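User: Please predict the structure of the protein below. I'd like the answer in structure-token form so I can feed it into my own downstream comparison script.

Assistant: Understood. Taking the following sequence of 118 residues as input:
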Amino acid sequence: MSAKRLKAEVAGEASLESVSRLCGRLTDATGVENARLHDLRRTGATHLTGEGLSVSRFIVSQVLNHASDTGGSSAVTAIYDRNAYLSQKRHALDAWAGQIASIVSGEEARSNVVRLGL
């Protein structure tokens, strides 16, 4: 599948079925065995809360649409708090997209690597 076609297929809203099919094609193309769509959610959540991006677990929970997570506040507060946290979720997902882009392009900054002048 061409990159252009892949980009067109995932642009906008996609059904869970089409995303699952796309995930299946990607695992077939890469030779990765036993990969599941849920693995991508777990990987994304782990990277979002990691040291590089430092997104709060509450916002990651909102990104993952875990409605029962109150972020450490009381359940009563969750009843009254009807905020969708859209800007915070957008910021988190933009940061994750930037990290993926830098990994794919080979430009990922490695803070633990010291360049030696020889």
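That's the full token string. The mean pLDDT is 80.
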